[in-house]
Amino acid sequence: MKALVLSNTGFGHGSLYPFIHYHKELKSCFGLESTEIVNNGLQDKLQQARAFDGELLIISVPWDTDRHKLNDFYRELRRDCPGKKIVHFDYGDGNQSAFFGALPYLDLYLKQYLNTDPDDYRRRFLGGSKFIEHLVQVGMAEDSILSEIWTDLFQSELASEQESKLMLGWNFGLWKRMIYLAEGKPNLVLLGKDRPHAFAVAKAKAAVDAIRRRRHSIDVYCRATLYKGWTRKHREYTINTLNVLADKYQVVSSTARVSFSEYYREMAQSRIFVSPSGWCEYTPKDYEAMYFGALLMKPAVEHIRTEPDILVPNETYVPLKWDMSDMLDQCRYYLEHESERRRIVDNAREAYVGYYREKRLVGHIGNILQRLGLRD
Question: What is the pTM of this model?
């Protein structure tokens, strides 16, 4: 069985990396061999798909692709490739999608997040997100495009007769650097992300930490890049509020940027990591905290299904209210109850590392192939 992966630059290419990383396992288990071509142009993708003589096409496009152009692309692709299975991989941040209009021409639509409640696909949310709508309702965000509340941009109608084509894909936890981290190769990540000087400085600091036996010198940790609009306000509120704890605890809560190597060193020194939302409820830092042994606290995500789906309330992370009103109390509780913190941290690391050790995504891809009728 042959697959052609027509990804796009950036997140699309990164999200489809598992076909490269697990190529031996996919060939051994399912006889699947894949070739990737990275290209942003719909016309180029159409020509490449036409020339392909295999069974499966897996396609991603830039997040800001015009939805009408994409519909035309898939309509023509279906007409020209009637015998091929066509899968769209939507790596977009939200649980909704701007591209559901293409579903009639697809065999399967993979998303990195799905709503736990299917009825949510029959609703429209401010900003295209239940989480964003809640922040607007409680006064933590303004319903305005000046606050990046784009209500129609990220959602489209999901026709009931097309719902069966919607299936869970996977999230940024399967990017190359996240897989390398889970496999115990953080230095490979850092050497690819940082300049040699920054890497060396952070490693020297870590060596001093070890000599002085300084473990968990940071009680509460939060570094976050400030984006625009509603997520900026949410992150600013989180960072500023956490600094209230500095009168009693060692707190690093800041928007100041550090090298990637220093960020990993700080994470490994932290007892608690608070993860405010970015453009969606998850961030790569969630999984990084689980790996390095910091107790993850973040706005509750039980309204979402994803892969790796390893966030279990009060077992692998501590869910916070969406307005973050219980954040300080939760921090104080777990700083004073080390055994409880340790229990969740140990569970979290095993859940994270175990997912990759057992190569569970290979089985998930097998389920996708089965859904497509490409395996028994």
Answer: 0.94
